[in-house]
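So, can you check this one?
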Amino acid sequence: MEGVLLDIDQLAKAVVDIASDKKASDILLLDIRDVSVIADYFVICSGNNSRQILAIANTIDKDLSKHGATLFHREGSAESGWILLDFGDVIVHIFGPKEREYYRLERLWSEAKTVVYLQ
């Protein structure tokens, strides 16, 4: 499948698969099309420590670029406990456990449709 261009739905699901392969926890894929114009999907997941957060982010970036996805913006750092990857229609939030609890994006976007939730 490497090198195959992915549509937005496939791209979002690929992020979930990559995060799962890197042992991210509490992976949530939200369809936000009906509640926001900023993107189609949010993927929210957690890493246990800064090293894992960085590994998840770097692998998502590297693997999606192989499928023609463009990373428009990267924000945050593993040390801060939060990295955001903006692929346009798919936005990825990778949190440390404390930061995930503090920001509680799931509650902010509670009106969004849950597509996938992996604990």
User: Anything to note?
Assistant: The mean pLDDT is 93. The two ends are 26 Å apart (CA to CA). DSSP finds four helices and six strands in the chain. Residues 73 and 86 are 5 Å apart (CA to CA).
